[in-house]
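Study this one:
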Amino acid sequence: MRAESIPWRLLCGLLFGLACLLIALLPETLLAKLQYHRAQIFEGEWWRLLSAHMTHLGWGHLSMNLAGFWLILLLFPNIQQPGRCLILLFLLMLGTSAGLWLFSPEVSWYRGLSGILHGLLCWGLLSQLRSHPTVSLSILILIVIKLLWEQWQGPLPGSESLADGSVIVDAHLYGTVSGGILWGLVTIYTGIATTHTRS
């Protein structure tokens, strides 16, 4: 990778991080209008399906999520390309919110990026499964174990204190599943496109 190409490749991450920081500076009354809120979405405030993932419970929650976001970007360069990064973020936001809406009616409100981070991590690991099978598969197994623990016992010990509030573990599950589905769809599409090209 040439040095001059680095800023361009990181443009998506920089813009997304900046957007999350700017949103964190908003007064609480405005933040409340951006978070996932089931009743308000039912009333037609659909933007919350996207904006919810860019709102946070506090500066500690924001710092933890952005650190995780940048770590994933650095570990998986194939996510860095701006177009791909934006599309992944957009679809993972919709997928996670759709999961909360359809399968977790008890979740009345939600803020945070953790569901998206799980989706990005899943997508990145699956995309490198052929080139780094042992490491990728091992981490994917650990993620599955973590998700099963969260569904059975709730948030991991200490995670709520780090997040400055409640952790919605269902968002982690739906984000991971969305990441896996997106990877599967891309793999199928790539396979079909390759077959057509050869024929």
User: Anything to note?
Assistant: The mean pLDDT is 90. The first strand starts at residue 36 and ends at 37.
